[in-house]
Amino acid sequence: MAVTPAQEGAPESLPAQAGYEIERDLAAATRKALKVRKVCIAGVDEVGRGSWAGPVVVCAAVARPSFPDPPAGLTDSKRLTQKRREELAAVLPRWVRAHALGAASHEEIDELGMTAALRLAATRALEALPVAPDVVLLDGNYDYIGSPWTVRTAIKADVRSASVAAASVIAKVYRDRLMAGLGQDYPDFAFCDNAGYPAPVHQKALAALGPTPYHRLSWAYLDNLPEWRHLRKYRLAPDPLDSEDEQLTLL
User: Fold this and answer.
1) What is the mean pLDDT of the chain?
2) Structural domains in the chain?
């Protein structure tokens, strides 16, 4: 069911703090379409898409129907310091009506491709919610979730939408902690600092030591590491929606 246009462009100027403009419009349209009084909206965002190691994590955060004022400074997790993210992550689970996390492992990313892995992680998060959302508000301009969920995409929703911003922060803090734990046995890679993203120290360790058991072995970075290129994994049918770094060469 389409309750509003499938996607919405971002305004020329972005707010310093996320609010409820998108949620209010979406709730009004959904109430009219479904002829109901109360609407359940889940904001969804992902983290770890561009990482070379570890899972991709998706959080679904359900906004309270009364749309209470967000915690001060709530916005996209990438705009916040680590300290402020940690502070917000401590209060957000009590501020939202409900939230849930879903992940797709590095093995699932290698097997399925990133687009399908995102769908899997998002489905796991949405199905884990204690309440079923009427509408899913997804950051970005592409609906990677699909049926049976009713999805609306919005560019820069992680800055403009309080529920998506909450999902962004919760997912980021959870995954950063997870990657720090996974990296304890591999200190040269500094996962505690880079969360598996290709920072210089990570790339240097990768070239010298080869991939850890948590690296995504289907990605093109291995083509640039002759000593470890033989570890690269391949799929027969790359997903055309995956980015260039996520593409897999045909056998």
Assistant:
1) 90
2) 7-181 (3.30.420.10), 185-246 (no CATH)
- The predicted pLDDT at position 1 comes to 44
pLDDT of 121 above 90: yes
Q: Residue 224, SS3? A: helix
